[in-house]
Amino acid sequence: MSEAHKLPPKTFRGKLKLIGPGIILAAAAIGSGELILTPRAGALFGLSIAWIILLSVVYKLFLTLGLARYTIATGEDIFVGFSHLPGPRFWFVWIMGVIYLVGAVGYSGISLACGSALYALFPSLSMVQWAVIVVFLAYVLLLRGSYGPVEKAAFVLSFVLIAGILYSLVSLRPDIAWFFKGLAPKLPPGSGQTAVSLLGWTAGGTSTLIYSFWIMEKGIGRKKSEGKDFEGWLSLIRLDTGISYFLMILISFAFLIIGVLVLSTAGPEGGPLIPAREETTSVLSRLLTVATGPQTKFIFLVAALAILYSTVIGLVDGKSRALRSATKIIFPKTRKISDKSLYRLYATLMCLIIFGFLFTKRPVVLIVLISAVEAPVLSVSAILLIYLMKKRLPRTLRPGLGWYVIIVLGTIVYFVLSSMVLVKAIIGSD
Asked: 3-state secondary structure string, 214-266?
């Protein structure tokens, strides 16, 4: 864990030197949702559904700012905050711990997608073999237990994915006037399920909560702050999260446009081509090759690989840190164990879970169910954060009315829609 910074930076240049947690959050959050779901949404419904992505990003941006505000004001990570909730002892810490650990099952699917991209580039090994190598390399990086290498990897991978996706997009030469005209917000007939999925998948789910742990690893928020120091740290956090969520919007919109331009007329009789989820990356790369040349296929696949690999690294790292905190909260005797040892334990356990499911049929039902559970749980965490703000922060450090309005309205919409998806996932209806 990094040493706590004594004072917040005063200059813009000084703030830029301390950004990083937001880049990891973006690298972790920009994953299979953007790479698979967003192009499919564009193919089916065009740009008119872009407002759903914007709504999701704005809601999660404000939630992230609230998490950071709590951590900076109290010197506690959000799991320690949840330990103060009334009711059964540590009840929400237990819930989040189980969700984070079981969620590793889904990362096997992301790892297989990494293997698929590598297989398309280098078919000398099978998809599963490449996936094994991807997980092993991620594990070697994480085994060090240090925050710094993860942040550096996130910066490099973010640069690769941004450069690759923007190159792929520019190669298609989209018309600017067409883009802005198509953004008129609509909810096309039959788009309800897609809209809900976009709301839940884009900009991450419960992984949003990990931001609290990353800023503490960076050395921010490990001591209570107030007055000018508090405002200084909050100013830095606004820059860090602003960059993070701008990247999420940029990449999501780029994939939406690529889906419209490449998939919307590639199907039978000029209709939309909707590939199976696991085939989306390969189909897009093939059609991009036809439209713009073979170099675009290579660049797109490298960018896709960067997206997926950064997601695996970011999620395993962040959730291992969160599980370490949960363990020390629930089982006080484990506080004698070093932070690095507990982190390595959970990073190892999560990677073993990923390895185990690489050699089975992809657990589609379980992945969908976990994703559906995460969405309403994120809504509950937002309400609990409001409670913690009111109970544990002095009035002078609480957010303004606008923050509460956005969080409450966004949570209502998010909870209702995500609950509908959860019910469908449980009963298995289409």
From this structure: HHHHCCCCCCCCCHHHHHHHHHHHHHHHHHHHHHHHHHHHHHHHHHHHHHCCC
